[in-house]
Amino acid sequence: MSKYPFPKVDLHFHLDGSMVPETTWKLAAERNISLPADNIEQFKEFLIRTADCGDVGEYLARFDISTAILQDYAALYETTYTTIKNVADDLCYCEIRFAPQLHTQKGLTQKDAIEAVLAGKKQAEADFPQIKIGIIFCCMIEPYDNRRENLETVNLFEQYFDHRHVVGLDLAGFEDSVPMEHYAELFITPKEKGLPLTIHAGDNGKPENCSTVIDYGAKRIGHGHHCFYNKEVMQKVIDTKTALEICLTSNIQCKTEPSYQLHPAKKLLDAGAVITLNTDNMILADITINDEYDHALNECGFEYNDLIKCNINSIKHSFMPEKDKQAYIDELNKYLK
Fold first, then answer.
1. Contact 141, 183 (CB under 8 A)
2. Which of 51, 158, 244, 310 is deepest in the core (most CB within 10 A)?
3. Which is more confident, 55 or 252?
4. 266 touches 309 (CB < 8 A)
5. How many other CB atoms are found less than 10 A from the CB of residue 337?
6. At what angle do helices 304-316 and 289-298 cross, to 10 degrees?
């Protein structure tokens, strides 16, 4: 039996950072894309060896491999399917995010990319009914002008949103490489329509970004741990019950926190912040959700019941249909010690 037998949830999970290595190797070979290894075992070693990065920019550069591969319908479909299969026995619910605009380099439209991911998701749920999946669309922070692409992503999100398959909108990328205020227009109509928003903020960027995205309508913040370093911002996060999608290992690997021991997640939890624990990019980071729980317990000061509480937070603040949440919460409460 798993040492964490309770239902587990991952709300911050990037598709292109969680590709199964064997799938990456196979798809690259089929597309004549060279990888930095001579065989699959060397490729796995490469992923482990390069997981610890100098900063977020270096970390994000590692996505170049998956981006090069994920430029056709079949690659997106198979990656989505095998990624879900890979976590189906560990997670009861997962929200997988991806940026449709990153998959249009070889002829796909954003809509084509969305249809491929949704097809893979629906088939995986049919084959592995123990897990439910929501899809989140990411707009992107880019050093070039991608306003048109971002607005297209927002428009497609509004068209596809249905609480069951497409469940939320995000903004991801190298935070503060472009001021957060530059992207305000993306969230005007989703906020007016009351649509679910989770926005990356307060990771490598300034704490005040957490306050900004709450004003944009975000009910969750991707990462958000830097709010701890501005007490006014932290109090706003607590008072608004904005959930923080904490990714411990990612924060250490990207050097946005100095160590597990000094990560403020437990202090934020104890102060009343809504904390969830997630993997971010489980293959690029060489972790599982169970590894994250190990770090939380052994190095970050969490207690066993905190893990249950974080998963209850994840269910309550997930973008799944409200009617589906109580059954998960009731089951999680059985595991409180």
1. yes
2. 244
3. 252
4. no
5. 6
6. 130
Mention every residue, 6+ apart, whose C-beta is less than 8 A from residue 171: 138, 139, 140, 141, 183, 186, 199, 200, 213
Per cent of the chain over pLDDT 70 is: 99
Return the amino acid letter for 17. G
Going across the sheet that includes 243-246, the strands are: 198-201, 220-223, 243-246, 274-277
Distance of CA 164 to the CA centre of its chain: 17
Q: What percent of the chain has pLDDT over 90?
A: 91
User: How would DSSP label each residue in 232-264?
Assistant: HHHHHHHHTTPEEEE-HHHHHHTTSSS-TTT-T
Distance CA 249, CA 282 (A): 9
- The pLDDT tens digits of the residues spanning 100-148 come to 999 999 999 999 999 999 999 999 999 999 999 999 999 999 999 999 9
Q: Tokens for 260, please give them.
A: 């597990």
What pairs with residue 243 in β-bridges?
220, 274
Burial of 203 (0-12, 13-18, 19+ CB in 10 A): buried
Query: How many other C-beta atoms can be found within 10 angstroms of the C-beta atom of residue 259?
Result: 10
The pLDDT value given to residue 205: 95
39, two tokens: 């065989």
**238 and 272 in contact (C-beta within 8 Å)?**
yes
Residue pLDDT, tens place only, 208-225: 999 999 999 999 999 999
State yes or no: pLDDT of 6 exceeds 70.
Answer: yes
- Across-strand partners of 245? 222, 276
How many CA atoms does the CB half-sphere of 11 hold within 13 Å? 32
CB 220 within 8 A of CB 200: no
